[in-house]
Backbone:
């Protein structure tokens, strides 16, 4: 089976969140999302999602820069490369520096397309082996401690196996102490989204007393050296997110001792090809990895489920139910989580969920078709 790529269909949709989501770098109430559909000459197609945000605060990419990269660079390069397999896309697009979310949205769609043509679920097609994945949940900054505790209680009742709370300067130790005091036995992690520096070592060392599974990305995005210095001072494992873009970054973090856990976000690393390389590297070194989230619609969430079935994903990820974020998702059925905090890998072809094209059409605010033949 050889792919014969024909065109890319881009849609920007606007999807309002059920509740605002706040981190150390901002507050989100709605998502502008780029949905990517790649067509083959056979008429088959696959779906992907570009996870770039509206603003360049998580990383340098935005939905608007990603749109330009896909139309002006990704499509022409794929046309010239005459891609025949999904596993060729990562290397073909390597000429484009950075912009991994733009490339990853297209690459994911091509994997979905190839899985459908192969008549396989995507998770099996990429080499996944876990038929059920463990789910955690990410809780944004709340208006006060009571609101946070109520939110944590609801998520525990819903069955989630791991609770992650966002922290930032002046909203950190007191939040962790309150959650740990009320819920002494839960798997608890914190995510700083690069809000601290080495000057905060004393404060961060206070978190050692709360039996955290990990502290996620406390220092600058891209940094490995200072994280290594910090990890030597802490008993709690550090987890890197924004610092790991490629398997080369994972190797350097391992050599430096920058972390003990790695968060893999499909968009951040540029798609399934690089994600597989990172998890394989980490599995060889017994370094746990888990799937991070970017407030994805159902399309991106379905790809996250597929990625999380790879054997290296041993910790509960941020792959939660559609209903936590959206009144109505764009896939059918919506993603649901069992009372035990798990998601069963779907049996359907490709991503395993049907995209509600009528809803996508209703939410569309921008579209473009690009030929790649």
Residues:
């Amino acid at each position: 089976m050889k792919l014969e790529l024909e065109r890319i269909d881009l849609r920007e949709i606007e999807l309002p969140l059920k509740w605002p989501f706040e981190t150390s770098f901002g507050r989100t109430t709605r998502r502008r999302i780029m949905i990517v559909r790649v067509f083959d000459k056979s008429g088959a197609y696959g779906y992907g999602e570009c996870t770039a945000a509206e603003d360049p605060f998580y990383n340098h990419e935005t939905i608007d820069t990603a749109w330009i990269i896909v139309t002006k660079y990704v499509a022409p390069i794929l046309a010239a490369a005459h891609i025949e397999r999904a596993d060729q896309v990562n290397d073909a697009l390597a000429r484009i520096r950075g912009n991994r979310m733009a490339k990853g949205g297209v690459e994911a769609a091509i994997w979905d397309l190839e899985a459908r043509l192969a008549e396989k679920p995507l998770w099996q097609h990429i080499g996944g082996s876990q038929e059920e994945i463990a789910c955690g949940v990410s809780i944004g900054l709340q208006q006060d401690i009571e609101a946070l505790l109520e939110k944590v209680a609801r998520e525990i009742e819903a069955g989630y196996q791991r609770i992650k709370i966002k922290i930032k300067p002046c909203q950190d130790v007191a939040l962790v102490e309150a959650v740990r005091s009320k819920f002494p036995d839960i798997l608890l992690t914190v995510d700083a989204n690069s809000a601290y520096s080495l000057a905060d070592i004393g404060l961060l060392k206070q978190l050692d007393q709360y039996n955290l599974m990990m502290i996620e990305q406390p220092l600058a995005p891209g940094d490995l050296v200072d994280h290594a210095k910090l990890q030597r001072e802490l008993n709690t494992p550090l987890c890197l997110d924004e610092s790991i873009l490629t398997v080369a970054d994972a190797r350097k973090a391992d050599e430096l001792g920058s972390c003990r856990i790695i968060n893999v976000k499909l968009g951040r690393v540029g798609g399934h090809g690089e994600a597989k390389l990172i998890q394989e590297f980490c599995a060889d070194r017994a370094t746990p990895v888990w799937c991070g989230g970017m407030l994805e619609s159902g399309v991106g969430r379905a790809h996250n489920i597929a990625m999380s079935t790879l054997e290296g994903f041993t910790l509960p990820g941020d792959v939660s139910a559609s209903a936590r974020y959206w009144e109505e998702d764009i896939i059918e059925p919506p993603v649901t989580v069992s009372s035990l905090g798990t998601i069963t890998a779907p049996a359907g072809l490709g991503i395993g969920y049907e995209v509600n094209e009528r809803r996508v059409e209703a939410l569309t605010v921008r579209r473009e078709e690009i030929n790649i033949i």
Remarks:
- The CA atoms of residues 36 and 283 lie 31 Å apart.
- The chain is about 35% helix and 25% strand.
- The first strand starts at residue 5 and ends at 23.
